[in-house]
Write a structure and sequence with these properties.
Blueprint (H helix, E strand, L loop, with lengths): L1 E6 L5 H9 L6 E6 L10 H6 L2 E4 L2 H10 L1 H4 L3 E4 L11 H15 L4
Parallel strand pairs: 1-2, 1-3, 3-4
Helix pairs in contact: 1-5
Length: about 110
Amino acid sequence: MNLLFVCSKNKWRSRTAETIFKESHYHSVKSAGTEPTARIKVNSKLLNWADIIFVMEKKHKQRLTENFSVASFGKQIIILDIPDEYQYMDIELIEIIKTSVSNYLDNVI
């Protein structure tokens, strides 16, 4: 299963999520950002690759559906509601991501 994590700049939240889950034997994981200044910018190829897309905020889902309407059509896009108040690999952020995402992945494995 291919998992894509999306936030704004792909520096803290989505990058942390990618780092947490990249060693999984059950999933392939990538991350990207919606802003022009993102470390890795989201694109149609990434969206087509993904089986499940986890976005950190509602605005990220809106940007995906507006800017990539064809590639995001019919995709499972899950809003995690994780605010932009953490840094990369922050212990609290790691716990929030693990807890939020595990509800969806337990059903998939």
